[in-house]
Amino acid sequence: AILIRTLEEGVAAKVIEYMTAEEKEVLLREIAKFRVYKPETLENVLGEFLYELNVKELNLVTPDKEYIRRIFKNMPEDELEKLLEDLWYNKDNPFEFL
What we know:
By secondary structure, the protein is an all-alpha fold. The chain has helices spanning 2-6, 9-17, 21-32, 39-58, 65-71, 77-89.
């Protein structure tokens, strides 16, 4: 609840879209009883979030073609195929064609 409250409203709404009904209910209850927190508490919550985010970023691996296909699913197939072909043709410098 603390983290959600620190986000811009539109961003918070987007995050909440991905929550289950149970998670939304718990969050709503926590926000409803929201109180003033000590600066140390806010700092600890945000610090923990940033730490977890950093750990996840460090664990990311090079995306494969299937991952790229999923996130670019709205791109025309032939255009995506051409870009993928160019990318995988030169793995050492995949963005050389730009």
